Amino acid sequence: MTTPAQQSERRVRQAALERGRHQGGETNENFGRGFAALGQLALDGVQVSARASDLATGRVLFSVDDHVAMPAADIGKVLLLIEVAAQLSDPDRADDGLGELVILDRGAGDAAGAAGIWQHLQAPSLPVADLAALVGASNDNLASNVLLRVVGLEAVRRRAESLGLSKTALLDVVRDQRGPDDAPQLSVGSAQELCWLFTAMARGEVVSPAVSQRVLGWLSLNADLSMVASAFGLVPLAHREPDHGLLLVNLTGTEPGVRSEVGVLRGPRAGVSYTVSMSFADTALAARLEVLDGMRQVGLDLLEYVH
Question: Could you tell me which residue ranges the Beta-lactamase class A catalytic domain spans (predicted)?
Answer without folding.
Answer: 52-278
